[in-house]
Design brief:
This protein is mostly beta strands. Helices cover 8% and strands 46% of the residues. Strands 8, 9, 13, 14, 15, 16, 17, 20 and 21 form a nine-stranded mixed beta sheet that branches. A five-stranded antiparallel beta sheet has the order 5-4-3-23-6. A hairpin with a 6-residue loop joins strand 1 and strand 2. The two termini are 27 Å apart. About 17% of the residues have low confidence.
Length: 349
């Protein structure tokens, strides 16, 4: 309120349409490890709209705009920590990883189911605590352990959860038919991966495989899977197949966070050559990118704000997926290849 010195007039200063959020922009930077080019997305937190859609970091309009801004905010998450591998207590069973304080519902469980329908055969699986691998009797082969979950403390004061992170639920079902008398076997395998982030379910992947052969080896097979987590354990062509990223910033009234996973699956067709043995043909799928993201203005303050219940911003998420794919395009990387990378966040005014 302003008043003239003689008291003759009073002016009231304020917002015509109410209090407006303080200005702030969330800049999402997409980096690919070892690559020169990166992409960006800029979200106007006050307007809840894009300032810049996915574009090259070197776009002159963006760099000119960024040079006028100052950064602010604190790290939303503490150091990511390997939450520990799953160590089942029985050959056929499941056990949750011991990750205290994880967001409710974000389970990390291996469910292993196997049935034998042939004669004269019992498959026995053993857990090796030293190598942290399952081994299967007789036919041979190694079942690699699924990736460990990652957890981290949440630095927002009075956050509704004290620990966040990302988790994986993996189900692997196999039916094996064997006959010792004729020395033949066949099997069918189904795998399902379900990915969870701080805001709940993110995405999933289902794989399937069939194979047959004799006790000397495989004769034919066809399997689709994410290679590092395959029952067969192939690592062809020294490629990356899975990557993840978690980042967040906050201040007194703003919370911004982003979780990303990316992966490629592969189809492996196996044939048998009497002279060369088993022969493999690999077909890699298009890269999949999935994102959870928020850019919240908290009118009552970020302290104690239930950012988990606030939910995801699907509009922002879709554009961030485009930015990841753009970064691959800018670096001339084929669409069936994964590169280690992440989405980092900056807050600017």
């Amino acid at each position: 309120m302003l008043r003239k010195l003689d008291g003759s007039k009073t002016y009231v200063i304020g917002h015509v349409a109410g209090v407006k959020p303080c200005g702030g922009f969330a800049v999402f930077f997409v980096y690919l490890e070892g690559k020169a080019k990166k992409s960006i997305v800029v979200w106007d937190i006050a307007k809840q709209a894009f300032k810049f859609l996915s574009t090259d970091y070197d776009d002159p309009a963006f760099t000119a705009w960024l040079n006028t801004k100052k950064s602010f905010g604190s790290q939303m998450f503490g150091t990511l920590t390997d939450c520990g591998f799953m160590e089942p207590t029985t050959d056929n069973g499941s056990q949750a990883a011991t990750c205290p304080g994880i967001t409710p519902g974000l389970t990390d469980i291996w469910t292993f189911v196997e049935s034998n329908v042939g004669s004269n055969r019992i498959d026995v699986w053993h857990w090796d605590f030293n190598s942290k691998k399952w081994t299967r009797g007789y036919i041979g082969g190694v079942q690699p352990l699924s990736p460990a979950s990652m957890t981290c403390p949440v630095n927002i004061p009075d956050s509704p959860i004290s620990v966040a992170g990302y988790r994986l639920h993996w189900t692997w079902d196999k039916t094996l038919s064997t006959n010792m008398d004729t020395s033949v076997w066949s099997q069918s395998t189904d795998t399902e991966f379900v990915f969870y982030g701080p805001l709940g379910l993110l995405s999933g992947f289902s794989g399937h495989g069939t194979a047959n052969g004799g006790y000397g080896g495989i004769n034919a097979g066809d399997e689709t899977y994410i290679p590092d987590w395959s029952a067969w354990g192939y690592y062809p062509f020294d490629k990356e197949y899975y990557g993840s990223s978690l980042w967040g910033l906050f201040d007194e009234k703003i919370i911004v966070d982003c979780y990303m996973i990316q992966f490629c699956s592969v189809e492996v067709v196996t044939t048998y050559d009497p002279y060369l043995g088993a022969q493999y043909t690999y077909t890699f799928s298009a890269r999949q990118v999935h994102v959870q993201a928020q850019a919240l203005f908290c009118q009552e303050g970020s302290k104690g704000y239930n950012w988990v219940a606030a939910g995801r911003n699907s509009t922002l998420e879709s554009e961030l997926v485009s930015a990841v794919q753009l970064a691959y395009g800018l670096n001339s990387i084929a669409n069936n290849v994964i590169n280690k990378g992440y989405i980092s966040i900056g807050l600017y005014r």
